[in-house]
């Protein structure tokens, strides 16, 4: 139930994010979800793409520093409080989140949150026990 995620470290320079995205585009990779966090010196571009291992290779061949990690994809209600319900399941079990990002899957008419708890396996366990719908990797890569 873990989703592989690419974290691309980018210098905080004009055009650097576009360069990374162009490399992926030229390689035929369709980005399923993304998030960016930045500091004054660098940014971290987090991406979900089909075939993340191949995407990592192509990026590294083009001089990008890339780390593979995992997130959990969880369906949530697309209404006020939907995210709060999911976060409540984690909070009630003392599971801390490092970060999250979310989007709406209009095709399936659902909202999705990608979660990175400190302990991925514990996060999956409590979410399942709490009744959350965890989305498998094959579904995520086909959005």
Automatic annotation (TrEMBL):
<feature type="domain" description="ACT">
    <location>
        <begin position="71"/>
        <end position="142"/>
    </location>
</feature>
<protein>
    <submittedName>
        <fullName>Acetolactate synthase</fullName>
    </submittedName>
</protein>
<dbReference type="InterPro" id="IPR045739">
    <property type="entry name" value="ACT_dom_pair"/>
</dbReference>
<dbReference type="InterPro" id="IPR002912">
    <property type="entry name" value="ACT_dom"/>
</dbReference>
<dbReference type="Pfam" id="PF19571">
    <property type="entry name" value="ACT_8"/>
</dbReference>
<dbReference type="InterPro" id="IPR045865">
    <property type="entry name" value="ACT-like_dom_sf"/>
</dbReference>
